[in-house]
Amino acid sequence: MRAFTAVSAGAIKVIKKVSGSFYSLEKLHRLVDGYRQVFNIGGRSLLLIQEDGQRYLLENRCPHAGHPLHDSTYENGSLRCPLHGIQFHLESGLALNVENFPVDKCLMFFRLSYRDNEIGVML
Questions:
Q1: 100 CB-near residues (< 8 Å, 6+ apart)
Q2: Is 108 exposed, middle or buried (0-12, 13-18, 19+ CB in 10 A)?
Q3: pLDDT tens for residues 88-102?
């Protein structure tokens, strides 16, 4: 189990639009397993993570109670919310360890975009 640690000392980065609707988040060479960073884009808090060579951009809030997920732990492909311990599968976003958890209350993901040597999001 690994706790999230932001590469840039945990500071929230406020992101501005680069061009069109592309928002640059990070240089590709900085992304390694264990990477965690919170970005504020247009008043929305997003969490960029990399685990097991996979990159994910998700809303930085637990779909159960709205608690920030940047302090979650990662284990076996899932995130565990620090507030109530609910585990969410990183591929599907679904809750794993709660019976009858509403399917519509899953992690909210955003599609990552690549431009030159940067990773970002189109919004």
A1: none
A2: middle
A3: 999 999 999 888 888
**C-alpha distances in Å from residue 48, one per residue of 4, 31, 37, 97:** 11, 10, 5, 23
Beta strands 36-41 and 13-14 are parallel
Tell me, what CATH number does 6's domain have?
2.102.10.10
Mind listing the pLDDT tens digit for each residue in 73-90? 999 999 999 999 999 999
What residues have CB less than 8 Å from 56, skipping those under 6 apart? 48, 49, 50, 90, 109, 112
SS3 assignment, position 28:
helix
Is the CB of residue 58 less than 8 Å from the CB of residue 69?
yes
Number of domains in the chain: 1
Phi/psi for 101 (5° steps) reads -70, 130
Domain coverage including residue 52: 2-122
Token pair 């990773």: residue: 119
